[in-house]
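Input (structure):
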C-alpha cells in the first residue's frame, strides 16, 4: 500500500491495517506494572484537551533542548506541527479508579511519510510523564510504530534526537537504531572551527526489500 493510500484510510481502517488488535501490552508475569492503556487517535480526532496535554508534555521535557538547538523552540510552530493532517497519536493513560481523573500520561506521535526518497514511518515525538518512565512503556510504543511501518511496507523507521539527550540516544540504540546516512554532519567554518550538529537523525531498517523512490 502506498503512503498516500494509507494516509487516506479512516482512523479505524488505519488501525486495523497497521496496528495490533490490542494496543495494550501483556503484563509481565510476577512483576509489578502500572495499569495503563493506549488509545489511538489522529490529528483530526484528538480532542483539544488531549492535544494540549501532549503539548505540555513536550514543553515540560524538551522546550529547553529545542531552544538550545538549531531547530529552536516556538510553541506556535509546535502546535501547528501537532495538527499535521497525516500525524497519528498513541496516547498513554493510567487506568484510574475515578474516570474523572483520566488524563494523558504519555504519548507518541508518528507519520507514514517520505524522507529522502524513502517511504518511512517517522516518530515525531515520544514523551512520558516522569512517573511513567522506566516501565518499558517507551519500548512498547516504539514496537507499535515499527509494526505499523512493517505492515505498511515502508523501508525504515526514523526519528530525530537531540545530541545532548544521551539517555534517549542509548535507549534508541538498544532498539537497533543507528545514525542515518542523511543525519547532519559536523561543518567546518571559515575560521577553521568545527560546528557540531545539535541533533541527529536515527533510523532502523524494517523491510530489506523496500527501496527509495
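Output (sequence):
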Amino acid at each position: 500500500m502506498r503512503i498516500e493510500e494509507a494516509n487516506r484510510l479512516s482512523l479505524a481502517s488505519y488501525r486495523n491495517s497497521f496496528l495490533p488488535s490490542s494496543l495494550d501490552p501483556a503484563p509481565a508475569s510476577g512483576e509489578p506494572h502500572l495499569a495503563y492503556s493506549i488509545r489511538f487517535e489522529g490529528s483530526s480526532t484528538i480532542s483539544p484537551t488531549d492535544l494540549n496535554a501532549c503539548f505540555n508534555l513536550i514543553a515540560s521535557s524538551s522546550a529547553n533542548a529545542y531552544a538550545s538547538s538549531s531547530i529552536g523552540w516556538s510553541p506556535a510552530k509546535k502546535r501547528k506541527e501537532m495538527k499535521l493532517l497525516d500525524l497519528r497519536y498513541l496516547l498513554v493513560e493510567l487506568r484510574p479508579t475515578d474516570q474523572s481523573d483520566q488524563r494523558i500520561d504519555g504519548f507518541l506521535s508518528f507519520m507514514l511519510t517520505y524522507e529522502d526518497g524513502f517511504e518511512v514511518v517517522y516518530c515525531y515525538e515520544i514523551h512520558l510523564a516522569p512517573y511513567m518512565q522506566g516501565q518499558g512503556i517507551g519500548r512498547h510504543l516504539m514496537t507499535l510504530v515499527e509494526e505499523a511501518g512493517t505492515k505498511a511496507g515502508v523501508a525504515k523507521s526514523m526519528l530525530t534526537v537531540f545530541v545532548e539527550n544521551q539517555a534517549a540516544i542509548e535507549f534508541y540504540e538498544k532498539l537497533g537504531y543507528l545514525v542515518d546516512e542523511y543525519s547532519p554532519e559536523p561543518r567546518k567554518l571559515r575560521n577553521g572551527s568545527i560546528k557540531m550538529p545539535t541533533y541527529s537523525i536515527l533510523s532502523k531498517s524494517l523491510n530489506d526489500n523496500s527501496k527509495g523512490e
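Notes: The chain is about 30% helix and 25% strand. The chain has a mean pLDDT of 90.
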